[in-house]
Amino acid sequence: MKVNKIIAVKLLLSLVIMVGFTSCSKKSDSKGGSKATGWKVNDKKGGFQYASKFKKQATGPGLVMVEGGTFTMGKVQDDVMHDWNNTPNQQHVMSFYMDETEVTNMMYMEYLDWLKRVFPPDQDNYKNIYEGASPDTLVWRNRLGYNETMTNNYLRHPAYAEYPVVGVNWIQATEFAKWRTDRVNEKILEEQRYLKKDSKVTDVSADKVFSTEAYLASPSTAMGGDDKIVLKKGQKSSAKAAAGSTNTQGNSPKNNYAQRSSGLILPEYRLPTEAEWEYAAAADVGQREYNAYKGQKKYPWSGDYTRSGKRQVRGDQLANFKQGKGDYGGIAGWSDDGADITNKVKSYPPNDFGLYDMAGNVAEWVADVYRPIVDDEANDFNYYRGNVYMKDKIGEDGKIELVTSETQKFDTLSNGKVISRNLPGQIAQVPVDEKETYLRQNFDKSDNRNFRDGDKQSTRYFKFGASEEGNEKGQLTDSQRMYDSPKHNVSTDSLGSMIRKYDHSNKRTTLVNDDVRVYKGGSWRDRAYWLDPAQRRYFPQDISTDYIGFRCAMSRVGPKADKKKRAKN
Questions:
Q1: Residue 528 to residues 322, 334, 341, 356: CA-CA distances in angstroms?
Q2: Calpha distance 460→433 (Å, rounded)
Q3: Which of 184, 407, 512, 530 has the fewest Cβ atoms surrounding its Cβ within 10 A?
């Protein structure tokens, strides 16, 4: 007994000594500084600053984590249309974040309110910003239907606050995502005291607008270059500091603006790619056993039926869709899908990723340009067709060029709607050129929307702008275009009057061009056939409807997942 006690004491002492050595070694490692140079990292006197305490990417407002993986894209179970644009192919998508619900009227109204406050539409140089971002409420009208109630109330009435926004075209959806990126990062930097408190409300104006990319490129010129708003780490944002108090910097390091390496700034909100959307909607993770899927889902939920089999809600529809001719919501008083047009988000159960309304309610824009094929031979990782690579515009002084109210650009869409291409405070963008593309193997031009779709432009040595390949402006003739779609043209004359030129040619063979985008998921106007996540359709990017909405996504940086995987979860 005595011997056992002695052994136990010795073991305890040896354990204490081991822990002591381990802690000492860790302490000495941290004091050793950089593994590359031995220099001290994050020295207050200056030098290399790095977010060494960074743990993981924060989840942005409204988002849900979707762990990436492999899946079969395409493969519609009931292909009554006999389409060949759903050919099954194996794809892999990286982990990403996606909006838990579709973007709602209330969310979009916040965007419109901000635009109206910052860029007053009663000023001539700003009037097209607000109008260009506003949804088209006339999409509800029908020649033989009375829908004026939705035309007048759907966007703005609080009864529809949590309903998905519609009447938004693809371009407006992408602009909303850009705006959302800046507002979320603006709040983060304010909380971390890199921006003056409440400046997003009290100091914001047309010449003092926060842009994430502008801040990262040149913090001192962001927010109109006002150093009372854009603070250095440790600088106070109090009224005393704003009045010009000295000694506002204290002992803070010299590299004291937030940078991408700070780990604070989130990646951009954007539209999901088609592959991401389909992967997230199918949520095959709910049918996983070890490292294999047990079959392909027909809908975002398990099973081959649209009605719930659970005892409490048996017979209820699991999505909002058109159930038959003249049947948008079942018989009055019967528990059905509970809606005639759209419905409040989260009205139906989520899928296995925790995402709501990935079938029904409204169809959703995705980022991709439509083509009848998904070219998995060229790429089977994060597939996306639509890359147009741009770079920051550098002025004559060698500095980045920010957009101002004088240099802001507007585009006139095919339907005559005028929309802002950029906003004051953002960095002006230009296409990449030979400086970035020369001798590269992975891309060789700025616009890659029609890469490998069979046309002449897909060849590596096609010369854009060369007279022998097109006209003097480098535009292709009808005989050279892969997709012979109509070419409508809208322009303005010297008086600002709109000139519409409609293409009346009877030789057009398709509506597919570089400006049609994919939309996914069935809507309240669609039959159950379109609820299959693999279904894909297209629509002009500058036209809106009463049945297409959208949700945002965000790329994930860092590890694929937060938790270690076991053999079976």
A1: 7, 19, 15, 17
A2: 15
A3: 407
